[in-house]
Amino acid sequence: xxxxxxxxxxxxxxxxxxxxxxxxxxxxxxxxxxxxxxxxxxxxxxxxxxxxxxxxxxxxxxxxxxxxxxxxxxxxxxxxxxxxxxxxxxxxxxxxxxxxxxxxxxxxxxxxxxxxxxxxxxxxxxxxxxxxxxxxxxxxxxxxxxxxxxxxxxxxxxxxxxxxxxxxxxxxxxxxxxxxxxxxxxxxxxxxxxxxxxxxxxxxxxxxxxxxxxxxxxxxx
Amino acid sequence: xxxxxxxxxxxxxxxxxxxxxxxxxxxxxxxxxxxxxxxxxxxxxxxxxxxxxxxxxxxxxxxxxxxxxxxxxxxxxxxxxxxxxxxxxxxxxxxxxxxxxxxxxxxxxxxxxxxxxxxxxxxxxxxxxxxxxxxxxxxxxxxxxxxxxxxxxxxxxxxxxxxxxxxxxxxxxxxxxxxxxxxxxxxxxxxxxxxxxxxxxxxxxxxxxxxxxxxxxxxxxxxxxxxxxxxxxxxxxxxxxxxxxxxxxxxxxxxxxxxxxxxxxxxxxxxxxxxxxxxxxxxxxxxxxxxxxxxxxxxxxxxxxxxxxxxxxxxxxxxxxxxxxxxxxxxxxxxxxxxxxxxxxxxxxxxxxxxxxxxxxxxxxxxxxxxxxxxxxxxxxxxxxxxxxxxx
Lengths: 221, 392
Ligand SMILES: Nc1ncnc2c1ncn2[C@@H]1O[C@H](COP(=O)(O)OP(=O)(O)OP(=O)(O)O)[C@@H](O)[C@H]1O
Ligand SMILES: [Mg+2]
Prior knowledge:
The complex is a heterodimer of chains A (221) and B (392).
Chain A: E1 2-12, E2 17-28, E3 33-37, H1 44-51, E4 59-64, E5 67-68, H2 74-84, E6 85-88, H3 100-109, H4 115-128, H5 144-156, E7 162-166, H6 174-191, E8 194-198, H7 202-206, E9 210-215, E10 218-219
Helix pairs in contact in A: 3-4, 3-5, 4-5
Chain B: H1 2-11, H2 13-45, E1 55-62, H3 69-84, E2 89-95, E3 107-112, E4 115-125, H4 129-132, E5 137-140, E6 153-158, H5 159-166, E7 175-176, E8 183-189, E9 204-208, E10 219-224, H6 230-242, E11 246-253, H7 254-297, H8 299-307, H9 312-338, H10 340-344, H11 351-382, H12 385-391
Helix pairs in contact in B: 2-7, 2-9, 2-11, 7-11, 8-12, 9-11
The complex binds adenosine-5'-triphosphate (ATP) and magnesium ion.
Adenosine-5'-triphosphate is lined by residues 11, 13, 18, 20, 38, 40-46, 90 of chain A.
């Protein structure tokens, strides 16, 4: 489903060049649950961003659904992300000026949907993550775990084929982390959603189908 | 999407309040400026109502000590005849000191039945005054010797005063004024913009100069032939000066007086325009800064929107649309204040001046906000989503 070939990513600032990713080759099957591990700064988030077409690699190609994404225009990329991908970020990235429900509806705003449909889908997604009693809250009025669950609801509301999750349980205690992990496993099992998850937690990684280890931008396992 | 943006703005009302206030204040300033410009422009479009080319104004002081009215009349009629009979002089007339384009203003109230009109410009004019200035008589006639025999003093009024006093009814032959100041309307003339191109004519009435009484003849107006030159001007000067009773003689050209009175209108306006210009630049920079700041503060949000499916164009469109909504909110409040001016008739201006000024100001503010929002919006669209997310 996702094929990365010879991916290299170099960050250039005025004085230094950082090789964040170095010749990464990765094939992810449809319906697979893959986890990525590695020490801080080894390029996990960078890899996820490149998979999610949020950033362009310096070298190499990304094929999703056997389509080369290099030639996509900005508009096509946006449509693609909207339809196929769901993101869960390391730091939630909720819009603090919008209520929970509006935050969850966000991906649907960039699709042809009516307000009614959006509301129904967002409510459903919030039910899945067990937050249907918090829809009128603002993100600042929620706990970290609740925020992460809002972010998950937002990622799944559009029923994407692929979910890219960057340390979804990183900021949570183990009980809450397990709960989140269960939601992801459930999605993978029942909906067949392909999931790529970055984690620091060996125990979480063991629950997934496959583990990829990065070290200093290179794949070591 | 619109509702979404509205929610976003509403939830940030505290931050947006300042921006709305700023737009509101600039709207009011722009509205004032446009009101002035539109007013001047509309006045400018009105006909002048007189010919100022080749019209000279003789200013003079006179120490006549004749007490007898008949002798006084003879003296002044002779003076005017002397001037009139000079070569190059086509017409000559006495006039009160408030000749066209002078800074002098004489005003009076006029009554007709139950109608009272205030601040009517009041001119004293000779029998050929209208010919010197080529004023258009639209009804009745100008003064003439016929009026010597009349029991009630004749007046000529301008169209504006005619409308206020008589509407569409009959004007000629109607009597105005109270018991002691009865006048009969003998003629109606086109409005004359006596204070220059940019000031409206207002209401005006003309009374016949009485050369047997004092006053009302402090100026002599001359219409001269095209070939009249400076040498002739000095001859006129000499004729006036040779009369032992005249002094302080000065000859002006009406065309020059027009230029200088126009300046007295335009100079304050230009100063105001410059001040307003600075203000607008200030507001534009402020707006630009606030929008820029908003965008850099909202990088995370922008990155997120890109991640969930917004294209660069839709992100910049959103930021521009938000600014336009803010502008609209400010303009609704501003327009509410602005329409009070025509409704309450605060200054004596036509309602159309305010309406046009409101429309122009609204367009101006929209344009200003659009220009200020466009560039930061573009910048926002250009950031890579990953970079935007990273910077949060
Ligand atoms: N925008 C950027 N500009 C310059 N260097 C960057 C940028 N983003 C990441 N890097 C560098 O690339 C490397 C990989 O960063 P990345 O965020 O992918 O690490 P990570 O594995 O996700 O770490 P963590 O576990 O702490 O989240 C780091 O050395 C980082 O300094
Ligand atoms: Mg990371």
